[in-house]
Amino acid sequence: MSSTTTQLIHHPYQPPNEFAAPQPGVFKASTVVFPNVAAMRTREWKDKSAYTYGLHGTPTTYTLEERLCTLEGGRYCVLLPSGLAAIANVALALLGTGDSMLLPDNVYGPNQALADGELARWGIHTQVYNPMDPADLAAKITERTRLVWVEAAGSVTLEFPDLPALVRICQARGVACALDNTWGAGLAFNPFDLLPGTSPALGVDISVHALTKYPSGGGDVLMGSAITRDPALHRKIQRTHMHLGLGVAGNEAELVLRSLPSMALRYRAHDAATRSLARWCIQRPEFAQVLHPSLSDAPGHAHWQALCGPADAAAGLFSVVLDARYTTAQVDAFCDALQLFKLGYSWGGPMSLVVPYDLARMRKPWPAHLAQGTLVRFAVGLEAVADLQADLAQALLQLAPSC
Ligand SMILES: *Cc1c(COP(=O)(O)O)cnc(C)c1O
């Protein structure tokens, strides 16, 4: 069996007869016509053996779904117009009034906003657990719990949980476990086989991926996916997907298909540059803490080592906590002074990005493993590392006491 990298390049797509180009075609449609009424009545799209309507899939979107299953080690995939839509699709497929959901305390913010907004309004209860303490998850699962979200690493603060332990707890309690796999991207670890060599495989039930990030890689596409190995679970997600009218167009799918063959290479480049900059930041007195799972004192470093050590992968994000002596205005001035790191959300594209976060508002109480101060998150792009380091150095001059 060849590696994922190779499989993303050598794939089973079959071009039209006599047109032996390996690049998938772009198919676009709302209407698909049927040869007769009998075909119209019987044709089945849910198993992807045929086509009935553009929203239900085209050869281009089926190809992308197949390729993403290869990337993440799953069997069934639905595509959505954003990563957040994929998160919402999973929640709406699995939860109803009276049910409850558990989110990690370092969850991707908009997932929490969905829980506090629509889900709460529809009588779905959400509790937050500490992903660094599996016993806390076990204690908070009740007979009402239908869905547990996990992230590795967590958003913004990048703690790395004991993912196999969290998954085992969900399995033992019969609760669906969904991973937001945007950080690992299918390259850092296999979400459906967390402990390779063990049988049966230990894995999450659902892997959600913001394709907006590394699979796109261009900073120009919004897309998400929800992948499973379980046919019954997939049918639930697919049914909600259909009822909500979610789908993606051929041109967008093609942009992701075009980027997938270079994804592993880009991921490694983002990763290497990020580790280099994180190590440089450790030496700087302005930072009270540097957060990156590969650093030996990072929260959950041993769990990262166990899960991602074989691939030696750690994505392209790191955060710093600026020393508490700096005012918000000074930290803002530092961010404003950055030239190559642009102020902007998202990540996974060629350009480096920076966002200051108000962690005191996001995390109550303040996590004991974090230094006091203002948190700034960097998403490292594909620029030359020396240029990025020089950019950080010149912006840090903004923090020098003016005298
Ligand atoms: C960006 C992101 C999402 C959402 O993706 P969008 O396509 O921007 O909606 C979800 N989860 C994580 C961890 C992300 O970083």
From TrEMBL:
The keyword Transcription regulation does not apply. It catalyses: L,L-cystathionine + H2O = L-homocysteine + pyruvate + NH4(+). The keyword Lyase applies. SUPFAM superfamilies: PLP-dependent transferases. Its EC number is 4.4.1.13. Its cofactor is pyridoxal 5'-phosphate. It is an enzyme of class 4 (lyase). It holds the Pfam family Cys_Met_Meta_PP. Gene3D superfamilies: Aspartate Aminotransferase, domain 1, Type I PLP-dependent aspartate aminotransferase-like (Major domain). Keywords: Lyase, Pyridoxal phosphate. GO terms for molecular function: cysteine-S-conjugate beta-lyase activity. Transmembrane segments: none annotated. It comes from the Bacteria. Belongs to the trans-sulfuration enzymes family. This is Cystathionine beta-lyase. It comes from Rhodoferax ferrireducens.
